[in-house]
Amino acid sequence: MNGIRIAPSVLAWNLGNLERAVEISVEGKADQIHLDVIDGNFAPNITFGPGTVKALRHLTDLKFDTHLMIARPDAYVDKFLDAGSDLLTFHAEVLDGGMFDELHKTVRARGKEVGVAIKPQTDLPQWAADRLDKISTLVVMTVNPGFSGQRMDMSVMPKLQRLSTLVRERGLGTDIEVDGGVEPENAGEVVKRGGNVLVAGAGVYAKKDPVRAISVLKAEAERARRPT
Ligand code: DX5
Ligand code: ZN
User: Fold this and answer.
1) Fewest CB atoms within 10 A around its CB: which of 15, 48, 187, 211?
2) 136 — phi, psi (to 5°)?
3) What CATH number has the domain bearing residue 146?
4) CA gyration radius, the chain
5) For ligand 1, is residue 217 a contact (CB within 6 Å)?
């Protein structure tokens, strides 16, 4: 079983001081850093691009988990690889099997990992189910892409459970990442449904003590795995 990993989403911090957001993740012993790239086209917000990812890279060796909520990932994949992303997650809604294969080839040629994300209302397309072995992280979104601080959509839980069962039945090591509204109160439920990577924006950065919030989340998630 894959270990629990906490991935703070810097989108929830002051975007004028992302260096501090990364430092908080380092101090709190986060497992990876979630970087939300939004283009104002795929989703209704504009965040930051490869230049920002590159500017943060010198601060840490932590895994840079780059969530590309953009309409044309093919046009930017090389730039995010150059910037130092370790995991590049593409949205299933803008791809088909052939486009995924191209992106996968590009990312793997640089020794990096490929993720696939789906919005709350999206089911995993057949082309992605057929290529699960090529996907290192399946990102199940529990809010609509765009903004931090939304409430988790619990109606996604059956899909989360179904997809994590599918991964397990196939004997794959795919991480199941849950993105949107993760808080200490729902971390246990997410883990029971098969999630192992927990993205948290407001669940870390909106807390009074964000460094401590990372270990609080991890403890809640790990508690859900222990037999009662
Ligand atoms: C939404 C982003 C999420 C979000 C997470 O578009 O993909 O990563 O910032 O933030 P919270 O945890 O506050 O929902
Ligand atoms: Zn995200």
Assistant:
1) 15
2) -80, -30
3) 3.20.20.70
4) 16
5) no
